[in-house]
Amino acid sequence: MLHVRSIWNGAISFGLVSIPIKLVNATENRSISFRQIHTEDGGRIRYRKVCELEDREVTQAEIGKGYEDADGTIIPITDEDLSHLPLPTAKTIEIVAFVPADRIDPLQMDSAYYLAAGGAPAAKPYTLLREALKRSQKVAIAKYALRGRERLGMLRVVEDAIAMHGLLWPDEVRAPEGVAPDTHVTVNDKELDLADALMDTLGEIELDELHDAYREALEEVVAAKAAGEAPPETPEPAKAGKVLDLMAALENSVRAAKVSRGEEPAEPKAAAQVRRLPERKTSRAAPKQAAGKKSTATKKTAAKKTASAKKSTAKTAQGAKKTAAKSTAKKTTAKKTTAKKATPRKRTA
Question: Where is the sequence biased in composition, kind Low complexity (predicted)?
Answer without folding.
Answer: 288-327
